[in-house]
Q: What sequence folds into this?
């Protein structure tokens, strides 16, 4: 049966949650009141609970299924953090309460800033950005504030490799920079000649994802950093893939000037079906004064929000950051010491290489070298009965797996980007490999089955174009 | 352990890969960069972590709250978090594989629909980071739509929103100027009329404004439109249970901080950026939107749509770089509104109005204190004190009360002014306690 919308279940006069009745209703002039009631559903509390419980069941989720989305780091989200991040004293702390009444929250923020500094080697962190892309924008605006302070006003370009996430060029554009795209070398890493040719006294920054989106560490990272710095530009590191490096290496040692991290990737905060995330931004000493304000400081035994940052770029959002997510990041980093963090990165890398090794005989490993935390496979529809990556992805849903990230990175045709993360067991990876092997066989024995997938989901293959033609975005 | 690998698993996997240790897989990382020293605290067990977090939480002092100023404490029915914290919602990713994500997608469609109904606007997005960034993105969209550069912002916007607007527009051709207030706590509409010209991209107002007062939105909308400028309005979504809607005064973009709808204050984040607009601007909106499509068998299905605006398709030509939004906060809001329905929402809005007005009336009876009441207000208002507001806050904190927001922080001429908020959570006893504490100082 089709899932009805709440409004289709609504009945006039049915009530859920009630409040006390106000005694008087004439505090406000009539002409300021709304003319008619909003068309919201009228449902009982029980109906509402059933409705949303049912909807939750129409979802694949990490708690239910293996979710091998490349660059998304879908690792287990510990249940303890669900409880601890919403303890009443944290959830009820008002952002404008006197500082003496919110010392606990400020302590968590300060300690997380310190922990992030230690694992990256950078000098300062802001917890203000609400997501990864918001962190990127914060980072690039920090770069811009740095150049502006140094009167480097001719620096108007940001260099971005063609393997970058779409957010990188979009971010640079939002910060008012011109994007210069450079092609990658045949080995999937930065082409140093192309980079050198693109660098000039117009370059404000180079944005690099490390490891990059084909799952490879930029082997020449220090040389690249030197080239960037020699040109008078700054090196921005997109830390979306930091799970591959946590406990193994510090970006500050590579020569990174500014970077963002994703607490909802590397630090086990849940993705929530699309947020809220948290994208802390770290900066080396010479760039730190330009980060957004305020940053939490410790004075004696007291924690305080320091708003007196004269060179700061300003504010990126109201208040101080997604604190409920910050709390989860803090919990995560307190559960693991250095050797456990190293083990986490190593197992993430082992899992990705294991999947790659098991599957590369059937699905083309585009760069046939050992990878970091994710691997990129691809298929050739001309040799596979016209089956495309999208078809394989949909067929995987039938086998009880979410699909990998597909058609990204853009430089790999028909890409499937697989990131298992360290929290998946060998048995789960084996089952996933078996499913992909079966699909591979189906491509040759019963290709229509793959073309028509999925067959087991609440709906069959959706015609996405039909939604954009005459958009229906509301009831 | 966070990783499930046994020694045997590890050995089998390494041999399948064809290496003898994971270190061999790291050969692209220069050796001197590998394995630096870390100075990190000892690992805690879950039990130790739980005790540790409770200890830190205890350092936050519970005060009876009368602060609003952009984040509002409201009653949150238990069913809200019971449903939104289900792992099936909480641990899903952005619904890129629509067939396996119909639940998340339908909730977003219902959220968009509830926002359109509440705001009386044509379209809504899936959510933004918070009210401030939603406002900034709406201003940038208005700038794109009109091709004009001048933006007139109300001086009575939230100070953080002003700062975020400055950050977001600093490197564009947008030029921000402020519209002046009257002494009555609302905008000077006559002065604004002279300020708006055919170079104005949009007029940006907040109603209730930062001081809590309801603006003459209809008049402001008209004078903006007469010059071909757009109206961008920021509202308190809970106030729309009672107050006139942005659609009714012909707003072009209406945004809000959605936290009051079923989300805790959490020291200011996560918030919920609500973005609504007229249909004509649908393709200029940044961020995700869910629409109805058909599956192969002609059944109704939900998908992310109009993605041609977005960064993963358009890269540097995208409307915005936004990717993640605040999906769980939006889910909280749609569950909250479904539980309350139109009647519950009206009840809670009326209760806010009543509690705030009762408090205001009592405070205005205290010698030395006066309440600014030239314009109507929803659940927040300005109290002029006989001493700096900072002192009042300090003295009431000692009595277990968070008295309000010190307006002297943002305006030198308002050192004695306190922004006070009361919601349905502030009971008659709380109000009495507040009033007697004020009398004692």
A:
């Amino acid at each position: 049966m089709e899932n009805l919308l709440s409004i289709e279940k609504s009945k006039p006069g049915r009530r859920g949650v009630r409040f006390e009745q106000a005694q008087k209703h004439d505090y406000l002039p009539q002409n300021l009141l709304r003319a008619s009631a909003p068309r919201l559903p009228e449902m009982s509390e029980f109906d509402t609970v059933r409705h949303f419980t049912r909807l939750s069941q129409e979802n694949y989720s990490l708690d239910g299924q293996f979710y091998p989305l490349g660059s998304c780091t879908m690792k287990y989200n510990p249940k303890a953090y669900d409880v601890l991040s919403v303890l009443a004293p944290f959830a009820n702390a008002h952002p404008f309460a006197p500082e003496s009444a919110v010392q606990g929250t400020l302590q968590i923020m300060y300690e997380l800033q310190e922990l992030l500094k230690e694992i990256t080697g950078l000098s300062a962190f802001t917890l203000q950005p609400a997501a990864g892309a918001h962190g990127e924008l914060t980072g690039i605006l920090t770069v811009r504030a740095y150049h502006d302070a140094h009167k480097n006003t001719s620096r108007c370009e940001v260099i971005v490799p063609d393997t970058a996430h779409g957010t990188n060029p979009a971010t640079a554009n939002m910060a008012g920079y011109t994007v210069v795209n450079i092609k990658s070398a045949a080995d999937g890493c930065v082409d140093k000649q192309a980079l050198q040719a693109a660098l000039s006294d117009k370059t404000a920054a180079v944005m690099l994802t490390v490891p990059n989106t084909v799952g490879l560490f930029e082997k020449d990272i220090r040389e690249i950093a030197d080239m960037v710095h020699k040109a008078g530009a700054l090196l921005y590191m997109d830390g979306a893939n930091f799970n591959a490096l946590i406990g193994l290496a510090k970006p500050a040692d590579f020569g990174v000037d500014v970077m963002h991290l994703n607490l909802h990737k590397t630090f086990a905060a849940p993705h929530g079906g699309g947020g809220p995330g948290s994208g802390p931004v770290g900066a080396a000493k010479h760039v730190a004064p330009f980060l957004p304000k305020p940053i939490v400081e410790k004075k004696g035994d007291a924690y305080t929000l320091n708003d007196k940052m004269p060179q700061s770029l300003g504010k990126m959002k109201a208040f101080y950051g997604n604190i409920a997510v910050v709390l989860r990041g803090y919990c995560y980093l307190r559960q693991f010491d250095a050797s456990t963090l190293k083990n986490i990165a190593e197992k993430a890398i082992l899992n990705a290489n294991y999947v790659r090794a098991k599957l590369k005989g059937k699905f083309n490993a585009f760069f046939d070298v050992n990878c970091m935390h994710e691997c990129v496979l691809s298929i050739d529809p001309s040799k596979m009965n016209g089956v495309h990556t999208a078809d394989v992805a949909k067929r995987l849903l039938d086998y009880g797996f979410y699909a990998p990230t597909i058609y990204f990175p853009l430089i790999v045709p028909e890409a499937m980007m697989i990131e298992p993360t360290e929290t998946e067991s060998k048995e789960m990876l084996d089952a996933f490999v078996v499913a992909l092997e079966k699909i591979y066989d189906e491509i040759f024995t019963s290709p229509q089955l793959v073309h028509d997938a999925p067959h087991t989901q609440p709906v069959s293959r959706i015609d996405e174009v039909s939604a954009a033609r005459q958009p229906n975005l509301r009831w | 352990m966070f990783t499930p690998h046994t020694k045997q698993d590890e050995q089998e996997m390494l041999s399948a890969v064809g290496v003898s240790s994971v270190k061999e897989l790291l050969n692209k990382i220069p050796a001197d960069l590998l394995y630096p020293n870390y100075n990190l605290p000892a690992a805690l067990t879950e039990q130790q972590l739980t005790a540790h977090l409770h200890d830190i939480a205890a350092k936050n002092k519970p005060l009876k709250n009368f602060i609003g100023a952009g984040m509002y404490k409201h009653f949150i029915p238990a069913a809200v978090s019971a449903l939104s914290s289900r792992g099936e919602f909480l641990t899903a990713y952005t619904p890129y594989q629509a067939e396996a994500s119909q639940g998340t997608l339908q909730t977003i469609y219902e959220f968009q629909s509830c926002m359109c109904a509440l705001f009386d606007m044509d379209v809504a997005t899936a959510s933004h980071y918070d009210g401030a960034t939603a406002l900034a993105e709406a201003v940038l969209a208005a700038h794109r739509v009109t091709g004009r550069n001048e933006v007139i912002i109300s001086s009575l916007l939230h100070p953080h929103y002003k700062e975020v607007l400055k950050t977001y527009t600093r490197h564009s051709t947008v030029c921000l100027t402020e519209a002046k207030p009257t002494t009555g706590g609302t905008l000077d509409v006559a002065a604004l009329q002279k300020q708006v010209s055919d170079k104005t991209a949009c007029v940006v107002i907040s109603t209730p404004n930062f001081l809590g007062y309801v603006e003459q939105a209809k008049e402001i909308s008209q004078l903006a439109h007469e010059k071909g400028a757009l109206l961008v309005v920021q509202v308190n979504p809970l106030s729309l249970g009672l107050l006139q809607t942005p659609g009714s005064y012909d707003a072009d973009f209406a945004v809000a901080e959605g936290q009051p709808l079923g989300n805790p204050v959490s020291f200011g984040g996560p918030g919920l950026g609500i973005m609504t607009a007229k249909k004509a601007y649908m393709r200029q909106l940044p961020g995700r939107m869910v629409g109805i499509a058909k599956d192969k068998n002609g059944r109704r299905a939900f998908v992310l749509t109009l993605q041609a605006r977005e960064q993963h398709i358009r890269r540097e030509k995208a409307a915005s770089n936004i990717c993640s939004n605040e999906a769980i906060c939006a889910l909280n809001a749609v569950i909250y509104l479904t539980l309350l329905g139109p009647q519950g929402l009206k009840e809670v809005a009326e209760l806010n109005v009543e509690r705030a007005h009762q408090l205001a009336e009592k405070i205005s009876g205290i010698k030395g204190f006066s309440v600014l009441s030239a314009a109507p207000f929803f659940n927040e208002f300005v109290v002029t004190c006989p001493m700096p507001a900072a002192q009042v806050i300090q003295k009431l904190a000692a009595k277990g009360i968070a008295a309000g927001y010190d307006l002297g922080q943002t305006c030198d001429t308002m050192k004695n002014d306190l922004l006070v908020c009361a919601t349905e959570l502030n009971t008659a006893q709380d109000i009495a306690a507040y009033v007697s504490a004020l009398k004692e100082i």
Observations:
- Chain A has three domains: 6-55, 93-335, 343-464.
- Chain A has a mean pLDDT of 96.
